[in-house]
Specification:
With 317 residues, this protein is of the alpha/beta class. A seven-stranded parallel sheet has the order 1-10-9-8-2-3-4, with helices on both faces. A three-stranded antiparallel sheet has the order 6-5-7, with helices on one face. Strand 3, helix 7 and strand 4 form a beta-alpha-beta unit. The radius of gyration is 20 Å and the shape is elongated. Bound molecules: adenosine-5-diphosphoribose. The site of adenosine-5-diphosphoribose (APR) has 26 residues, from helix 13.
Length: 317
Amino acid sequence: MTGRAARKVNCLARWSAPVDTREASVRQTGRAIENNVMTYLDSILEERLTEFSSKKRKLTVLTGAGLSAASGIPTFRDKDGFWTVGSVNYMPEEMGTYEMFLQKPLEVWKWFLYRNTICLKALPNIGHFAITELEKIFEDRFRLITQNVDGLHFKAGTSQEKSYLIHGTLEKSRCGHECSSELYPFPDIRFEKGQDLTNAQIERLRCPKCGYYLRPHVLWFDERYNEKYYKLDSSLRVAKETGLLLIVGTSGATTLPQKIVESVLSKQGIIIDINPSENYFSAIARKKKNGYVLTGRSNDILPEFVEVFNKSSTLTL
Ligand code: APR
């Protein structure tokens, strides 16, 4: 079954148990779960993973909003997604443009302050911690490329040195007129939908150098990837060195992740898509001999990779 769908699990309901229960059950029943078609990694895939671990190429994890769904942060394009629901007054994706920022900086700020307030309340889930464990196992062979701006990877202990934040971060801001490329902390203003900004809060949104408005240090739809802010070249370099790419919780709607996957495949790397729904990357993986599709939630699936690599005696560092 080329482009193997390792397992289509049709009893996800049972998996909606709280994360802790899930983790416990894996340890308890281990392989036995296989008969109920509950585990995700079949023996064929495990063999390839063990083979990969004996090589020297990089393990790279490419993450999207789906990874943080179990932490209570809406994704972008799912039914309750940020781009689906959007802001009170404007079309969703308008809020993610430099053009809108120049026209209505305070409306854009209200929206990003509201999003950041959700992120600040969120805690990393077992999916984030599993990725941190993979970093500990693979050490310098590990890299993380994330589209997420929520900061949960670092809260889960993944290192900044081996991480590429290709869409920026809601932990930083910079001058909206680029009077300098200095990064400032993101204004710590807790903000709920429908609220209004006070004059004192508006003053905290100004660039300390030129007085114009700061902007969130995130990549907007009408902007281009670059190395200075979004690690464009570095992440493409990592793709070339990648032997195994875990694609976690992304719909594949943005271009750099698409290029990264293309590059990994062009170097005969393995790609594994982890997502409860079909998406741009699962469609590609199904067509490739080095492609695997694990249909399920990242918080359910990623711990199994930790188990496989933890017991893999062939790991080469
Ligand atoms: N585990 C794994 N995947 C999940 C889960 C889960 N628990 N829940 C949802 N998903 C999947 C969805 O099926 C969907 O394919 O996560 C994906 C989220 O897709 P998007 O909402 O499009 O988010 P993302 O792919 O990260 O968006 C990419 O687009 O809007 C811009 O800058 C924004 O970084 C973002 C980029």
